[in-house]
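Researcher: I'd like a structural prediction for the single chain below. Treat it as a standalone chain; there are no partners to consider.
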Amino acid sequence: MLKSPFMDIPYAPSISHILGALSIYDLEDTVGEALWKYDPNDEKQRETIIIEFILKDLMYLSYRHRFVLISALKDALDSPDFNFTKEFESDYDEYITMAWDETEIVNPRGFFADIYRLANEVWKDDLQKAGLEDQSTW
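Model: Treating it as a single chain, here is the predicted structure.
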């Protein structure tokens, strides 16, 4: 069974974890300033946000964890009823402030589709490696 990083519990991927790099709670003057230079609705700038912030931030995960997380994202993308808008909502009770809130992202599903596409390009070798393994042995 694949364990959560840094904990001895089963890994349960959550789509919200993908956007962890966009949570700027108490980082408005640093990470927030860096992110706000980009328009998340502009295709080229969104690619930079995804590659330079989101995918880099997830590199602490092993290739197996990233495979499971991206597989969960694919399942969400395959579900026409999945609400991607909620993933951009800030939750002040949990100290989560998103760089751009749900009203600023024109196409949340498209944003996540781009994450999926770029993750499969950037992490291609690692995702293929994990895909060839017997996941029941993790």
